[in-house]
TrEMBL record:
Organism: Pseudoxanthomonas dokdonensis
Entries under InterPro entries matching the protein: Cupin_2, RmlC-like_jellyroll, RmlC_Cupin_sf
Protein name, as recorded: Cupin type-2 domain-containing protein
Domain of life: Bacteria
Residue ranges of domain Cupin type-2 in the record: 57-126
Amino acid sequence: MPALAVQKMECAAGQEGDGGWQHPTKAVGEHPAVILGEVDLGQESIQQPGYFLRMRTVTVEPGGVIPYHSHGKRPGIFFMKHGQIKIYVDGCKMPLVLNEGDSVVEDHRIKHFARNETDDVAILLVADIHQ
């Protein structure tokens, strides 16, 4: 089995610029996240009260949308467990296309929205730090 690589959520070379997209503000076809586990970081050796590390699944139906949001205080990494999703990142002319098996880092600079433009459900496994 080949090693999995985690990529940063950034524009491909030469694709920097305004994509001109409308930022959707409402979720469409996005199921409530299923929390798989959570760690209170205030109780751990790093002692960060009020912060939690969690793992969850996010499911998006065909034609569904994850609305525009920021990762300013919620860095994370996600793995495309099933299907495909397009991520529309501020500052990129083209969306990032993520397929089953792809992983991406979402850091404090990221503002984006996502669409499932396929005929199949998209399932993401997400690990993030949140308050």
